[in-house]
Write a structure and sequence with these properties.
The protein is built from 11 helices and 5 strands. The chain has helices at residues 10-17, 21-24, 33-48, 54-63, 70-80, 155-169, 181-184, 186-193, 207-223, 233-249, 261-267, and strands at 116-125, 130-138, 144-150, 174-177, 198-201.
């Protein structure tokens, strides 16, 4: 979005696209090699034990002869954007001044494409460092409609992914997210509500509201991320993009009667509502 090689000054570019100037100059703080290894293991344990907070994770690590303090585990979890689902997921850290929208999906039958889209952000470990993956997923078909890999969890990445999904697939009736500040930000809520789409947000710490997206992350991480050691952000983007194409086009799901997400999406797709 920001091109440092462009003749237009960065300060002017950030005003035009409506983001904070500090975002354009953001550089992530370095993480030690030991902490990177620990963060990867924490991510794996979080997928296996999504209800585990820092205290339980310390006990699980101790069983693996990994000695680390609860405070340090908590610090790394915040850096990664994870917490126990019964608490408040840290990728869901609320901004104190942002409005929280009600959860609209309780009791709803979701059985057709473009009925509900979900967005979420997840930590992705690399060989050195880490990035965040934000995905737009069609709820009924599990199809990943668009995604972004970035070094921050800012709203602009979610907006870019959502706008790409609109351009390719029309628009849904409802967009569902968690209460993360990237999704409660005005830039994101305006992108949804400005198209007369209803916005739904998971209940604070309600794991049942989030379990569908967690299943998508399990597939992405166990079938792609944990098998790789991305050497750069561009490597992560390319490899994750290749995997998501395979996931959509070739990976059958038992929950979809062994259809692929693409097959399920187009089989249940009503007339597409124009995104224009």
């Amino acid at each position: 979005m920001i091109d440092r090689e462009h003749a237009l000054p960065v300060s002017r570019q950030v005003r035009l696209v409506g983001i904070a100037r500090s975002s354009a100059y953001y550089q992530p703080h370095p993480v030690s090699e030991a902490d990177q290894k620990l963060m990867r293991r924490l991510d794996e344990l979080h997928l296996e034990f999504p209800f585990a907070g820092a205290r339980m994770l310390v006990r699980l690590l101790k069983r693996e002869a990994i000695r680390v303090g609860r405070k340090h585990v908590g610090t790394l979890m915040k850096r990664m954007g994870i917490e126990a689902l019964y608490c408040k997921p840290n990728t869901s850290r609320r901004h104190a001044k942002h409005k929280i929208w009600p959860y609209l999906l309780r009791g709803m039958t979701i059985n057709r494409a473009n009925q509900v889209w979900a967005l979420d952000t997840s930590y992705i470990p690399m060989a050195r460092g880490f990035v965040y993956l934000t995905a737009v997923v069609d709820w009924a078909s599990r199809k990943v409609l668009a995604h972004r890999v970035a070094i921050t969890m800012e709203a602009m990445h979610a907006v870019e992914a959502l706008e790409e999904a609109f351009a390719k697939y029309g628009q849904p009736e409802i967009v569902n997210t968690d209460q993360g500040s990237q999704f409660t930000a005005t830039a994101f809520t305006d992108a949804v509500l400005g198209r007369d789409i209803r916005l739904s947000m998971d209940g604070k710490g309600a794991w049942r509201d989030n379990v569908f997206v967690e299943r998508v992350w399990r597939s992405v991480k166990y079938e792609e991320v944990y098998l790789k050691a991305y050497e750069s952000v561009s490597h992560a983007r390319r490899s994750i993009g290749d995997y998501l194409n395979l996931y959509n086009q070739k990976r059958p799901h038992s929950s979809l009667s062994d259809q692929t997400p693409d097959e399920a999406y187009f089989a249940t797709l009503p007339a597409i509502k124009s995104a224009a």
